[in-house]
Amino acid sequence: MQVPAGADRIVFDDPRAQAMTMLPRTKKYSKFIGNEIGVEVRAGRLVLFPAWLSHGVPANPNELERISISFNIMFGAYTETMSRPLWRGTVGPRIG
Fold this sequence. Notes:
There is one protein chain. By secondary structure, the chain is mostly beta strands. It has one domain. Helices cover 4% and strands 12% of the residues. It has one helix spanning 78-81, and strands at 9-13, 36-40, 55-56. The chain is flat and about 65 Å long.
């Protein structure tokens, strides 16, 4: 991985459609008030996040190319072993 100066961030946005309407009024935004967060990237750093999370990188202001490697991962039998429903039981008769 190659990280030129000024091209060393990945930015994650709040995926909720109405997130901006919930922000408090403020005179100055900071890392505590906003709907995005940036993560500093460095050579050798691995950043893992769910694929549904909106993300992007700022434009590279450098002549050097920014090189990164991305991949997707899926666990076998995920729904059976890692993400079971929070409820148990059977569906009863319909009432009404």
